[in-house]
Amino acid sequence: MKIRTNALAGIALAATASLGLAACGSGASTSGSSTAADGKPSGEITVYNAQHDTLTKEWVDGFTAETGVKVTVRQGSDTEMSNQIIQEGAASPADVFITENSPAMAQVENAGLFADVDQATISQVPADFRPSTNKWTGIAARSTVLVYDKNKISDDKLPKSMLDLAKPEWKGKWAASPSGADFQAIVSALLELKGEAATQDWLKGMKDNSTAYKGNSTAMKAVNAGEVDAALIYHYYYYGDQAKTGENSKNVTPYYFKNQDPGAFVSVSGGGVLKSSKNAAAAQAFLKFITGKKGQEVLQKGTSFEYAIGSAVPSNDKLVPLPDLQAPKVDPAKLNSAKVTELMTKAGLL
Prior knowledge:
Blueprint: H1 7-16, E1 44-49, H2 53-67, E2 70-75, H3 78-88, E3 96-98, H4 103-110, H5 119-122, E4 137-149, E5 174-176, H6 181-194, H7 196-209, E6 210-212, H8 216-224, E7 230-234, H9 236-243, E8 252-255, E9 266-273, H10 280-291, H11 293-301, H12 337-346
Parallel strand pairs: 1-2, 1-3, 5-6, 5-7
Antiparallel strand pairs: 3-9, 4-7, 4-8, 4-9
């Protein structure tokens, strides 16, 4: 493996990490009065953001323009932010937490730190894209995909299932970014769908067969450069590069497993309001905005290439439509990041 990452040490450091302020304000939010005299949200909120900063900035700018609510953003990774919130507990300055993947949301939910999501927001998001508990909600989605070098792998040699990547014939042929929250969400779905024994077996095969890179984009670049034949990543890295110069994806083709395969997993990006929020009305309004028509149109028309999932807004027309992905049904509330870390560490992947 090219990279070995000590996930357990990373989690411990993340829990105490100092998190910088991002572009939408400076200093801690005072989380002012929750509503103005006309009943509209007012004051300030702080968002702990593990989503892409450019996407969140578009959401924040749109929300502030519509409501006047000032938003301070603290940026970090899924795991950094979830651990920070749990460490802070009821004293957290965060009003809202948003992520790239759902295991970090489930971690905060299991710690009992989320308030219920307003029904008006829940009604904007189909049940397939939010947890059964409704303690948080989906705000966007991304699909698992195998990107491969079409000059090295013919269509008839593509794996029928993600599980096939653990077979001997795939030794040395594929890559992933095992230390990232994206990949660990995929493993979380495998654990939920197939159980611990099957997940352990697959991870052992992955350890034997795959090459590790730091980051999905780096893994895709390795395929493009001919270092490996294929990489298991999320779809939007390919589409994002294609929309720019295409220089890191010109030799790459995305392959979707479909057929409710674990490799067809669609990961839900989450958003939730903290119980400890000092401006719950504005925090709930922000969540409603990003799952509403204007917020989801940021996904449809922007350059993130993540899937829109709320308010019946279509996704970017360059993407394979969500129904065509034939994704397996997975309750995001049941994804277990702690168990995944344990299993991946045992397999020697972290």
